[in-house]
Structures are given as structure tokens and as C-alpha cells.
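User: My instructor asked us to take a sequence, write out its structure as C-alpha cells, and then describe one feature of it. I'm not sure where to start. Here is the sequence I was given:
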Amino acid sequence: MKNILFFSIAFILFLGCKEATNSSKAKVIENCTYWDFTDRDDQFTGGIKMIPIETPKGTFNVWTKRIGNNPTMKVLLLHGGPGFSHELFESFDGYLPQENIEYYYYDQLGSYYSDQPNDLSLWDLDRFVEEVEQVRVALGLHKDNFYLYGQSWGGILCMQYALKYQDNIKGLIISNMVASIADYMKYSDEVLAPQLPPEVLEEIMIYENKEDYQNKRYLDLIVEHYYSKHILRIPMEQWPNSINRSFAHVNYDVYVTMQGPSEFGVKGDATLKDWDVKDQLHKITVPTLTIGAEYDTMDPKHMEWISTEVQNGRYLHCPNGSHLSQYDDQEHFFPGLIKFIIDVDSGAF
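Assistant: Let's start with the prediction itself. The C-alpha cells for your sequence are:
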């Protein structure tokens, strides 16, 4: 009797396997290939590769880590800051692998897992563009597979890269970044600041005017009333470990040199203070996705406008998201991002 029951179950399972669709079989095969490290030069390190970067001040190494295999969909992730780390993107692990999208974590020079030379002259936008190009070449990315994703400062970097090297790109993704620092500051001053309680804004501006940016009270006010509403709309005690690690690992030499000392905009002698490429966006011809969020520090209407200025754009709006919408609006962020990558890959964009 047991044997009859065993063979009956086995037969049912066999029929179920026989009836599986070709697409589901293909998915299984793709997933097996996706996780296969066989004969890869990064197998020993589990996908991690230190890439030597030539700079005017010598050769340094930057950290990258590959997730998955896909010959036609490879995404290089440019983190924000400047001076933060790839850890801001660790939520991607929950969404991209099941779509068989290959992607690369990457700590830019000066960031936590890469070399951190003590030379402020290296924190220069044009030099970072050349760094990205060297990373692209080292990873074997090219116009038939290379998607460049940049968020916040990474969005500045990917726009600047595309204006020089777009012939190497298959798809461009500009996330949570406008095309003008002046416009960002205007939005911050005229739209976001007035949303703060008047007494809070008044106290913040006292510290701002005195340039007392390291004052604990100033930082507490910014975190409580600004970060929790416009950076990541999750109670701070519930912030993901990956976000906390990235904040703990920030390189303030890079951050202050390029972004400035204020947590309330780009100020002081920051090298990015005058950055503006609005009048150059029309030169970008590659398929481009811009991502904006309702509660972002960046104006979502400006992000939508960028998608109409480039020659082949699409806009993704995250109605519940803020600056880190890959965490606080995953419901809209990841389906829209994945659809863009697959649409470009399939020719449906």
C-alpha cells in the first residue's frame, strides 16, 4: 500500500513537472546561471573586485561587488554623498536578483570600502567622471549591457558622465537629483524650509548663520525635523542597518569639500555649489529614467522635467517616497526601475 501511495505521488509530481511552462523552465535555468560563479575571475572573493584607478595623484583602489550574471542587463550603482557608501543600496538585493538583473555595488574613491587618500584635490567632479569610466572598462561594461544608475550626488555624477561618455551606455537612471544646485537650493529655501515649524526653522537658521554646523542641537533639529520627513520617512529608531552603516561610514573630507558643511543645502566653498547642466540635458540621447519622490529634498517636478529635456526619457514618481525612496516607497520604486531596465533590454522602451 505504501509503495502504491509513493508511486502515485511521484506520478503526480512528474505530471506537474511535465506541465510546467517553457517560461518557468527558462526562469529556473536563468536563475541557475544568474548565481553561477564558475570560471569568473571574482569567484574567489564572492564577486568583490578591487579596481586600480589612475589619478593625477597616483594609483588607488576602489571596491566593487558583482551580484548575479546577465549578459545584457548590468547596472553600476553610484551612491550619494559625496563620501557615503554602497550600503545605501542594499535593499536592491530584495528585488533585482529575481528579475535576473546583474548589478554592481561600488564605493567611489574616498568612500569606506575603497582607498581614502588624504588629498582634497581629488574630490573633483571631472576626476570622478574619469574614475567611473575606468571602473566601467575594468568591469567589462559596454553599450550593449551597461546601465548607469546614480542617486543624489551619484545623479550629478551620472549626468556628467553621460554628457561625456554616453556612447558607452545602454540606459541611464537619474534618481533623486535635479540638474541644478541653484534650483535645489531654491526649492529647499522656498518650499521645504517653510514646511518646518516656524520656531524650529528660526533656531536652525541661528546655527546656519553662525556656521555652527557641528553643534549637537543643530544636528538634532535637522535629523528630527528634516531628515525624518525628506531623507527617509521611517522613524529613525527603525532605520535599516544598511542606512545606519552608510551614515556611520561617511568620509566628511569628501562630503564637506564638495557638498559643504551645512546639512541644509550646498553652502560655503563647496565645489558643487555652482553646478548646473540644465542647458545640456538635450544632448543626452540614450534611454533615460528619472526618479522623483513626493517628499524628496529634490523637487519632483524638476525630476519630471528632466525626463522631457533628454531626448528619450521616462519619469517614475514615488508618491510615498523621500530622498531614499528605495526604502520608504519600494512599492513604486522597484517596479518602475525594473520595468525600465527590462523595457530597454527588450526594445520595448
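For the description part of your assignment, you could build on this observation: Residues 66 and 104 are 5 Å apart (CA to CA). Try explaining in your own words what that tells you about the chain.
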